[in-house]
Amino acid sequence: MRKVVSLFILALFVSLVAFSAVEVEFWHAMGSGQGEAIEEIVKMFNDQNKDIVIKPVYIGNYGALNQKLLASVQSNTLPVISQAYGNWTSKLLESSIVENLNPYLNDSEIGMTQEEWEDIWLPFRQICTWGDNVYAIPFNKSIYVMYYNNDVLDMEGIDVPTTFEEIYDMTKALTVDEDGDGNIDQYGFAFRSTIDTFAIFLLNNGGTIVNENADGTYDITLDSPEARETLEFLKKMKDENIAFVQGGYLNGPFGEGKVIAYVDTIAGKSYVDSSCKGKHDWQWAKIPSGKSFNPPFAGTDVIMFTSATDEQKAAAWKFMKFLASPKVTTFWAMKTGYLPVRESALDTPEWKTYTKLEPKAAVPVSFVKEAYSDPKPATWYEIRSVVGDMFNNVLFEKYTIDEGIEWAVKEIKSYLDM
């Protein structure tokens, strides 16, 4: 009888502990293997923190997540934490529903020391900071690199290009009509007709689209010699039919050998591995540069919402800090191919072993400190769309370069004035 009573009391205690656990809903857009990695990280955290239950909720994709967040502001059904791009956070800050993390970050017991905070790569800290206030913790971060078919480059005795001029020379040398039928069988270089392509080359030619002032306002900087040079350079390769141009992803043509090199983020590594398997070897390197080297990075952060209870906020902060810890960000990087967000992650035994087995992983982290942090106007998504339209219209001769830039500047101004 005593044994039965003891078991009942134990079961009651366990159920009460479970019942009293603080639940934190975490919205994300990480599917497939990335989603599995999140599930593993959440399980690790929940197992170590029996008084907290993190509930990851997969929304579907970034577009769906953004729309759901905006709709949830209106219906007051926000989660406790969510993935968000910097410009999403800027838009949400207009509704005063994003929690300022300074009180947590600076707390002597639960916060981060100055050394720990500065261990996060500077570009990642910048995208999380508005003025003196931190509103996000960096999470899944990738950086742009140049993928290249090293089998072909080695066979042709061509060095990996490091400048715009060298890209052009390589592209011209490796673009061939092998069977003489008038159709190109192999292109030396490829690029997507998207805002990202234009922005990458513009940034690495010393230009920008907009610049942020100290007071939080923005200057439009698109109308510049650097922008014109960038458009001329990319259009020249398209018009001479030495570069393959399409809107979609390029890992397929790259794997087939139709394309020798292209630029994309390291988040595409698994797709490139799959496309190239059994066909040819590949490597990646720094983006070739013009007047400067400013490789942009991509990816989201994690933000917390003011609508959560104090208990949920404390639990959420503990999880956000856990996500950015050296061990966990190393695990995340190894599982997904994203960058570790902490510099000290590179000193962990796990990372050192990983990069010995997978040397490619050591390349992108070698220039994270030089990465470019996008500006964060609330209308950045709309501004990107405008510049993307301009780029396409110039490439395909709807506008001249001057007409395209003039139109884009006018449209950007209207969005910044909102």
Structural write-up:
It is a single chain. This protein is α/β, with parallel strands linked by helices and 418 residues long. The chain has helices at 2-20, 32-48, 62-75, 86-93, 102-105, 114-119, 122-127, 150-156, 164-174, 195-203, 225-239, 251-256, 269-276, 310-323, 326-336, 349-357, 380-395, 401-416; strands spanning 22-28, 52-58, 81-84, 129-130, 133-134, 137-148, 189-192, 210-212, 218-220, 243-246, 261-265, 283-285, 297-304. The chain has two domains: 2-142 and 298-370, Periplasmic binding protein-like II (D-Maltodextrin-Binding Protein, domain 2); 144-297 and 375-416, D-Maltodextrin-Binding Protein, domain 2, CATH 3.40.190. It is built from 18 helices and 13 strands. Strands 1, 2, 3, 6, 11, 12 and 13 form a seven-stranded mixed beta sheet that branches. A two-stranded antiparallel ribbon has the order 4-5. It has a two-stranded parallel sheet with strand order 7-10. Helix 2 (32-48) links the parallel strand 1 (22-28) and strand 2 (52-58). Helix 17 runs antiparallel to helix 18 (401-416). The protein is globular and about 75 Å long. The relative contact order is 0.16.
Radius of gyration: 24 Å
Q: What would the principal axes of the Cα set say about the shape? A: globular
Q: Can you identify the CATH superfamily of the largest domain?
A: Periplasmic binding protein-like II
Low-confidence stretches: none
Structural class: alpha/beta
Helix percentage:
40-55%
